[in-house]
Specification:
Elements (H helix, E strand, L loop, with lengths): L2 E6 L1 H4 L1 H6 L4 E4 L5 H10 L5 E6 L6 E14 L23 E16 H5 L20 E4 L1 H8 L3
Parallel strand pairs: 1-3
Antiparallel strand pairs: 1-6, 2-5, 3-4, 4-5
The structure holds a DNA duplex (12 and 12 nucleotides).
DNA sequence: GCCAACGTTGGC
DNA sequence: GCCAACGTTGGC
């Protein structure tokens, strides 16, 4: 089993939206970066856990734990002409983009802020990808050590 | 295959 | 709104 961190803008889709979704489950679609795509397609497994991270908002931080309930499958939004994530270059035969389905496991209240995480940037979280300068990947792996340490912060 | 221009991300 | 960092595009 692996651990991940998945970014989302709460103004677009946040933990409240996930909780309100049917069975608190949603398709994690719209990822349009090859590195992230490869992880969704090749590495995500049912039962993996991920932090839901709120980005581009007032208090960026980890707002909850989510579980992968369906591993990588072709992202339907890439083929949906009406979707904002539609990609005319993708096609059904050789899908370019992938999604996974995730379910809310539990909220982290209050969220563990980026500020708090940064307090450990020289210590337990010194290798955490999220905290790396210039990191823009919306899906990143988290080590078991980092995972447990961060959960211990609440 | 190089690399400049451009677009996007995301914290501040 | 600014801007650093980085990915992508496209001309050559």
């Amino acid at each position: 089993m692996k651990y991940w961190l998945m970014k989302s803008e709460p103004d677009v889709f946040g933990i409240d939206d996930l909780e309100a979704a049917p069975r608190s489950t949603t398709a994690w679609d719209g990822v349009r970066n090859y590195q992230a795509r490869n992880m969704l397609r090749d590495e995500f497994q049912r039962g993996d856990l991920a932090f839901l991270y709120h980005s581009s908002c007032k208090e960026p931080g980890i707002a909850g734990v989510i579980e992968v309930v369906r591993p990588g499958y072709p992202d339907p939004s890439a083929l949906d002409r009406k979707s904002p994530y539609f990609d005319p270059q993708s096609d059904k035969q050789s899908p370019r983009w992938y999604s996974v389905d995730v379910k809310l496991d539990r909220r982290i209240d209050p969220p563990i802020t980026l500020k708090e995480l940064r307090e450990h940037q020289r210590g337990a979280l010194k290798d955490m990808l999220l905290l790396r300068r210039g990191n823009r990947l919306s899906v990143t792996p988290v080590t078991a050590k980092e995972w447990n340490f961060i959960l211990g912060m609440r």
